[in-house]
UniProtKB/TrEMBL annotation:
Transmembrane segments: none annotated. InterPro entries: MobA-like_NTP_Trfase (IPR025877), Nucleotide-diphossugar_trans (IPR029044), Se-dep_Mo_hydrolase_YqeB (IPR017695). Coiled coil: none annotated. This is EF2563 family selenium-dependent molybdenum hydroxylase system protein. It comes from the Bacteria. NCBIfam families: matur_yqeB. Residues 7-170 form the MobA-like NTP transferase domain. PANTHER family: MOLYBDENUM COFACTOR CYTIDYLYLTRANSFERASE (PTHR43777:SF1). GO terms for molecular function: nucleotidyltransferase activity.
C-alpha cells in the first residue's frame, strides 16, 4: 500500500506577520504549531507514514513534543523551496520510506483547517489515482500532496516558490477536496478584524475587540456623518486622530501607515468605503457596523467570519451572523439565520422618551451651534442655526451628540441627540450601554466561532 508521509513546513521568516515566532501565536489557547501537530497525530489511517517537521533553529529549541523526525532549516532566507527539499531528503532517507510513497506538505498558519477535510483529501487522492492532491476553495490551497513522480520538479524549485508552481503545471493530474472558507484562511498576519464604520455604535465594537487583543482596522467614508462624535473613531477622518476611553484612533492612508498604527497600539482608520484593503489584508473577521439599514457591499466571502450589525443583512446569505441593534429584550441577540428586527424609524426609549430625543434638520445648509455637547439644555431653547433657521431643543436634558459643525446637512438628516437623564454629563463622553452590548455580542460570537472551528 502506498503511504503518505507528512512534512510540516515551519521555518518561514513570517515577514508579513511582524514576528519570527508566529507559530507560537495562540489561537483558542493553543499555538499554531500545536494545533496542526495534534490534528496530524490523531490521524490513524493505515496509509499514514512518518511526520517530518522542518523548523528554524530558534523554533527547534522549543519543539520538545514534536513529531518523530525534526530537521532544522539553517538558512530560511533561501525560501520555502529549501524546506521542501530538506523534507524530501529526510523522508526518502528514513526507514519509513518505500518507493512509490507520497508526501503531503502542510503549513502551520491555517488553524481552522479541519482534520476531517485533511483526511478526506488524502483518502480521495489515494482513490483517485492522480499524482497530486490539494485542498480547494476558489483554487488550489494548502495542504498539497505529491506523488514520487513529481519529486524532481519539487527539488528544482528555488527561492520562496512552493509546490503550487508544480501543481499548476499539471492541472489534469490534481485531485481537489473542497473546503470551507475559514479552513483556507492563512494567518499571515496577527488576528485582525475589519470594522466597516466608525460611528458610535461601531466604535463600541472596535473598542472591545481592541481590548481583547485583536488588531482592528476601521473603514470609513471620506465625509462621515456622526452625531456622537466624542465617542466615535470616525472623528479621526477629520482630526487626524481621536481618543475614546483611552484608545487612540489614527487616520491612515496605506498599508504601511496602518501597520505603524498597530505597532503603536492604536486603531487605524482608513478611508476605504469599497474595502479595497482586502487586496493587501487577510482579516480573520469583518464586521459591518455602518448601520445604514441596508447592505452597502458587504459579502459573506470577505472574511472567514462576517458579521452584520442591524437590519439590512440576512445571516447565512449576506453575512455569517447578524447582531440585533434595536433596544429592547432582543438587543445584541446573535442571529445565525434570518434578519434583525426591521427599522421602525423611532429611537429606542430612554427614561420615557423616544422620538423626542432626536433632532432632525428642518432644512438644508451648513449647521452652526449655539450650545456644546455636554450642556444642559431646556425644551424650546435654541441649539443651532441652519441657513438662518433656528433649531431648538425638543426636550430638557443634556446635549449628548451633535453632527460636526459646518457639515452640509440635508432636510430630515439626524443632527442632534438629547439625553433625558440629567444626573451627570459624563455619559455624553462615554461609549453607550447599547454600543457596549452590541460590541460584547460581536466579541463573544467571534471567540465562540474560533473555538468551534478549532474543535472540528
Amino acid at each position: 500500500m502506498m503511504r503518505i508521509h507528512v512534512a510540516i513546513l515551519a521555518a518561514g521568516q513570517s515577514l508579513r506577520y511582524g514576528s519570527e515566532d508566529k507559530l507560537s501565536e495562540q489561537v483558542g489557547g493553543k499555538s499554531l504549531l500545536t494545533i496542526l501537530l495534534e490534528k496530524i497525530q490523531r490521524i490513524s489511517a493505515p496509509w499514514k507514514g512518518c511526520t517530518v517537521l522542518v523548523v528554524s533553529r530558534e523554533l527547534a529549541k522549543l519543539c520538545t513534543d514534536g513529531p518523530e523526525i525534526c530537521v532544522v532549516n539553517g538558512d530560511p532566507k533561501r525560501g520555502i523551496s529549501h524546506s521542501i527539499q530538506l523534507a524530501l531528503d529526510v523522508v526518502q532517507n528514513s526507514p519509513h520510506w518505500m518507493p512509490g510513497d507520497a508526501v503531503c506538505f502542510c503549513v502551520c498558519d491555517q488553524p481552522f483547517l479541519k482534520q476531517g477535510t485533511l483526511e478526506n483529501m488524502l483518502e480521495g487522492y489515494l482513490k483517485s489515482g492522480k499524482g497530486i492532491g490539494c485542498i480547494d476553495r476558489g483554487g488550489p490551497k494548502n495542504p498539497c500532496v505529491f506523488g514520487e513522480q513529481y519529486f524532481p520538479e519539487l527539488r528544482s524549485l528555488s527561492g520562496d516558490v512552493g509546490g503550487k508552481k508544480v501543481l499548476c503545471r499539471h492541472p489534469e493530474d490534481v485531485y481537489r477536496q473542497k473546503a470551507e472558507k475559514e479552513e483556507v484562511w492563512d494567518m499571515d498576519e496577527k488576528r485582525t478584524v475589519i470594522v466597516r464604520g466608525g460611528g458610535d455604535l461601531a466604535t463600541g465594537t472596535s473598542y472591545l475587540l481592541a481590548k481583547r487583543g485583536y488588531r482592528v482596522l476601521v473603514l470609513e467614508t471620506e465625509h462621515p456623518a456622526c452625531i456622537r462624535r466624542q465617542v466615535a473613531f470616525c472623528e479621526a477622518v477629520y482630526e487626524g486622530r481621536c481618543e475614546v476611553e483611552g484608545i487612540t484612533a489614527r487616520k491612515v492612508t496605506n498599508r504601511e501607515k496602518t501597520i505603524r498604527a498597530w505597532e503603536r497600539g492604536e486603531i487605524p482608520v482608513l478611508v476605504d468605503p469599497g474595502c479595497t484593503c482586502l487586496s493587501w489584508l487577510q482579516p480573520l473577521a469583518l464586521v459591518d457596523g455602518i448601520l445604514a439599514k441596508k447592505n452597502l457591499g458587504t459579502r459573506i466571502d470577505m472574511a472567514p467570519l462576517t458579521i452584520g450589525l442591524g437590519p439590512g443583512f440576512t445571516a447565512g446569505v449576506d453575512t455569517d451572523l447578524v447582531i440585533e441593534t434595536m433596544r429592547g429584550e432582543s438587543l445584541a441577540r446573535v442571529y445565525q439565520s434570518g434578519t434583525a428586527l426591521p427599522n421602525t424609524g423611532v429611537p429606542g426609549v430612554i427614561d420615557g422618551y423616544a422620538s423626542e430625543r432626536v433632532i432632525y434638520a428642518p432644512c438644508s445648509g451648513e449647521i452652526r451651534y449655539l450650545r456644546q455637547v455636554g450642556d444642559l439644555v431646556k425644551k424650546g431653547e435654541p441649539l443651532a442655526v441652519i441657513d438662518g433657521q433656528t433649531v431648538c431643543a425638543t426636550l430638557t436634558g443634556l446635549l449628548r451628540g451633535a453632527i460636526r459643525e459646518g457639515y452640509p446637512v440635508t432636510t430630515g438628516l439626524k443632527i442632534m441627540d438629547i439625553e433625558p437623564r440629567t444626573d451627570s454629563n459624563a455619559r455624553c463622553f462615554l461609549i453607550s450601554d447599547k454600543a457596549l452590548a452590541i460590541g460584547g455580542s460581536v466579541c463573544r460570537a467571534l471567540e465562540e466561532w474560533e473555538r468551534r472551528c478549532l474543535e472540528n
